[in-house]
Amino acid sequence: MYEYLCHQSPHRHHHRLGKLGQVLHRSKRGWVWNQFFLHSDVDLGDGNIKYILSGEGAGTIFVIDDNTGNIHATKTLDREEQAQYTLTAQAVARDTNKPLEPPSEFIVKVQDINDNPPEFLHGPYYANVPEMSNVGTSVMQVTATDADDPTYGNSARLVYSILQGQPYFSVESQTGIIRTALPNMDREARQEYDVVIQAKDMGGHMGGLSGTTEVKITLTDVNDNPPKFPQSVYAMSVSEDRVPGEEVGRLKAKDPDLGDNGLVTYSLLDGDGMGVFELSTDSETREAVIKLKKHVDYETKRMYTLKVEGSNPHIDPRFMSWGPYKDEATIKISVEDADEPPVFVAPSYTFEVEENAPEGTVVGRVHAKDTDVANNPVRYMIPRYTDVEQFFNINSEDGLITTTRPMDRETQPWHNISVSATEIGHHQDTKVRVNIKIKDMNDNAPEFATNNEVLMCDTVAPGKMIETVSAVDKDEMAHRQHFTFSLAPEVAHNNNFSLKDNRDSTASIYVLRKGFSRLTQDVYFLPIEINDNGLPALSSTNTLTIRVCSCDSRDTILSCNVEPYVLPAGLSTGALIAILACIVILLAIVVLFVALRRQKKEPLIVFEEEDIRENIITYDDEGGGEEDTEAFDIATLQNPDGANGFLPRKDMKPELQCPLRPGMGHPAPNSVDVDDFIKTRIAEADCDPTAPPYDSIQIYGYEGRGSLAGSLSSLESVTTESDLDYDYLQSWGPRFRKLADLYGTKDCPLFDADEAEDS
């Protein structure tokens, strides 16, 4: 195997190989190729030998003269793309292409030149360094890469330098480590620096290639500045109508440091207002807040003085000598006179009252005060628009709030009302919000969380769990409070189902036997007692419905309805119910239609005021007179249906008239008898096709012909036309018109049965 070196060319020009032993040079810039060629010992120069070349780049990058064996490169070579090529050459007979000697393998190596500049692959870079760092403190290291061959010459030998960022930072030429170069760099003066680093190959010598990158360096904060109040004296004022807890004023010490380094805490050092005012710190703004601790009185004292200190709680020991890290300021607070409405001692109130507490239970007390010099009494009231249902009352003098009725937390857990305070003799008032929470009492029994039916296969095996039940309670559940479940006493020893309390507010239902049949019983009702274990403990009985269903061999439910074969004609329960409902609706429509038609055709009804009654009084002895009260109501004879509450229609007349029987149509004038009257009415009813059929026979007892005692009836008493005169009945009005027509007409040839019925 042979190795040949081939110089990399920076220009895209073809290279020619000279003859044996010759070295050709470009007429201008270029690289010199070492002459190499192939020659076989069997080559006599007569052109019978042909040289062939194969391998990497053969025919494309490298070509061979088949007559002379000279090898040429056809394109520019780049070591960074491929550093070497392996080729195979052979001499063969030109006419037969038979090898004349074994093939010869050789390697062409591409010699590197400096044609790639250094590169920073991860730029730009970002770095942090604490302010006030010592000179030489390491910031970060940057590294550049060069694609040239590091083993050949200085093409890949890099040297680092700083182009921008001096005199604050420097860089080590061999390692690329950036370090601080200036002491006491202050973040508060300048926080960010833009540094440019250069990497140059060829060891930094002239002609080397270079690359640059940018590094953004940020100074981080340290506690190197003490706090400072902008003013040495602060003036504040407070009105005498302010209540304790209200803010009087604020002040803040400046600290340019950040985070914990700039944190300032405040405290009161001295002053005659130490007991009247208090100091706190606002967690968001980091300001010192002066609040009123006690009431101030303009007439008693009008000026207070406080001394406040602000200090850093976190001090860096390296900068302890730069202290002290604290500052002081004086606050002068003046008291102002005010004529204001009453002021509640709290901006709002929140009270609690137990659920179901009796009427008059104390909820809480609100307090407002007149801060004027006069100190007028204050009266309280609840605006009814904030308590529409008037759940609460308030004592107008002392602000005591009480209930007017028991409260139900489940109906309304919170009541938000307002209380108004007014000075006597003034119209100004002040309102405050009062929030009243109803504390829960265990007054609701637990119940099932869901009321779904449990579907159970009729082939279920004993001991299988068919359902897990849970419960809910309208009351609030206490910590570690849970529900317990048990079967109701009446089913505690049943042979069908059992219950297991899981002690996690759930219970499991198990089957005790097998052989459930839907034909025998398709629904089971299992009463379950649920206890909430509260104070006091409450329980309820809830019924779990278990329906037996038909299932296949894989316990997949097929049907839970009544079996079709138990119904006639193969109809299901739903179909039968639908058919029966249709029949009932049709019957109701028919009845309604008939009733409406009867109402339209029969408007004339015998009303009670048109039913003229006459009492027939019977006496068992002679001369009972009006003292005998045993009587018969002749209305029953006239209208037997009216006695039972039915009023017949009288606007329909029979089309066919039944002839009166002899002796009935023309009774003798002196033979007016109830017996004849009844027989006449019966005959008319039998002949009337429009009269409803009466299937009962009513027997009326009366005294008529044949009585041993005789009859005292007014009908029987009339024996001649001249016995009594009833013409005066004509003047008695329409109510007695029928009687007047019946008894007042002397020339009546025929007894009118219809008129008798009306009378």
Automatic annotation (TrEMBL):
Residue ranges of every copy of the Cadherin domain listed in the record: 40-120, 121-229, 230-344, 345-448, 448-566
Listed PROSITE patterns: CADHERIN_1, CADHERIN_2
Membrane-related topology note: Single-pass type I membrane protein
CDD domains: Cadherin_repeat
Annotated localization: Cell junction, Adherens junction; Cell membrane
InterPro entries named in the record: Cadherin, Cadherin-like_dom, Cadherin-like_sf, Cadherin_CS, Cadherin_Y-type_LIR, Catenin-bd_sf
Residue intervals passing through the bilayer: 575-596
GO molecular function: beta-catenin binding; cadherin binding; calcium ion binding
Function of the molecule: Cadherins are calcium-dependent cell adhesion proteins.
Species the sequence originates in: Neogobius melanostomus (round goby)
SUPFAM superfamilies in the record: Cadherin-like
PANTHER family cross-referenced by the UniProt entry: CADHERIN-11, CADHERIN-23
Protein name (Swiss-Prot/TrEMBL): Cadherin 11, type 2, OB-cadherin (osteoblast)
